[in-house]
TrEMBL record, chain A:
Location of the Carrier domain: 2-88
The protein's name in its UniProt record: Acyl carrier protein
InterPro entries, per the entry: ACP-like_sf, PP-bd_ACP, Ppantetheine_attach_site
Keywords recorded for this protein, A-Z: Phosphopantetheine, Phosphoprotein
From TrEMBL, chain B:
Family annotation (Pfam families): FabA (PF07977)
Source species taxonomy: Bacteria, Pseudomonadati, Pseudomonadota, Alphaproteobacteria, Hyphomicrobiales
GO molecular function, one term: lyase activity
Annotated protein name in UniProt: Beta-hydroxyacyl-ACP dehydratase
Domain of life: Bacteria
Keywords: Lyase
Organism: Bradyrhizobium quebecense
CDD domains according to UniProt: FabZ
Length: 99, 158
């Protein structure tokens, strides 16, 4: 089974028509790949479906706006993959996820 | 439909918050309406963009119900919009919408427009939704909900 990063990278490549080989674990979705908020909605939809989760985009955005987190924590793809793994683990543990 | 004020939905027929579905009706204006003067002379048909907006408004009422009128949906994306048949003046549209996905701050729906049993168009629609950005807008939506028969009791049951 492919890694979470691989799955995300494939989703981004397909959704945003970005060459797959330009998408790296260290890529920043916004700053490096130029993904805008509308395209990210499409990506979030695909990731939610693929992993059976609900990425808490509003909570993440609020944390960034409040200065409690940086965009790198959520939008550098390896970090995004780690967040997704946490959400999947929480779901499997039956603790649910914040929305 | 009141095209001048962009109110495309006339009646809510069914709202099921458990199944996350809605059915509404909309009366297409007669051929004397100005929209048909240009679309098209001698061959009046409903513009596809207005049919798409009707699907969006139908989905919007469903999202309003699911969020208990605490969040206002705004159309963000239209995918796979297919205009499958012409819609004539005076037609009665039956529009069905259902939730495909509820994300964080966004919702994806699918919607279909029928005239009688004939499928006229369908699309997948994505909405961002945010807390009501204006008290006036909330008042307006409440009034509109009352006008089109939005079943407020469905929210207390849901």
């Amino acid at each position: 089974m492919s890694s979470t990063f691989e799955q995300i990278a494939n989703i981004i490549a397909e959704t945003c028509d970005i060459p797959r080989d330009t998408i790296k674990p260290e890529s920043h979705a916004i700053d490096d790949l130029g993904i805008d908020s509308l395209d990210f909605l499409d990506i979030a939809f695909a990731i939610d479906k693929a992993f059976g989760i609900k990425m808490p985009l509003e909570k993440w955005t609020q944390e960034v706006n409040d200065g409690k987190a940086t965009t790198e924590q959520y939008f550098v793809l390896q970090n995004l993959a780690d967040r997704i793994d946490e959400l999947v683990a929480a779901k499997n543990a039956g603790t649910g996820s914040a929305s | 439909m009141q095209l001048e004020t962009f109110q495309l939905i006339d009646r809510i027929v069914d709202l099921n918050l458990d199944a996350k579905t809605i059915v509404v009706e909309a009366d297409v204006p007669p051929d004397s309406h100005s929209v048909f003067a240009g679309h098209f002379p001698g061959y009046p048909i409903m513009p596809g963009v207005l049919l798409t907006e009707a699907m969006a408004q139908s989905s919007g009422w469903l999202i309003l119900g699911l969020t208990k009128f605490e969040r206002m949906p705004f159309l963000a994306m239209v995918k796979e919009a297919k205009m499958r048949g012409f819609v004539s003046p005076g037609s009665v549209l039956t529009i069905e919408a259902k939730i495909e996905h509820e994300g964080s701050g966004f919702t994806v729906t699918s919607a279909k427009v029928r005239v009688g049993k004939e499928l006229k168009c369908n699309a997948e629609l994505t909405f961002r939704h945010i807390p009501f950005p204006s008290p006036d807008l909330r008042v307006h939506m409440d009034a509109l909900a009352n006008k089109i028969g939005f079943p407020l009791q469905a929210m207390s049951n849901g």
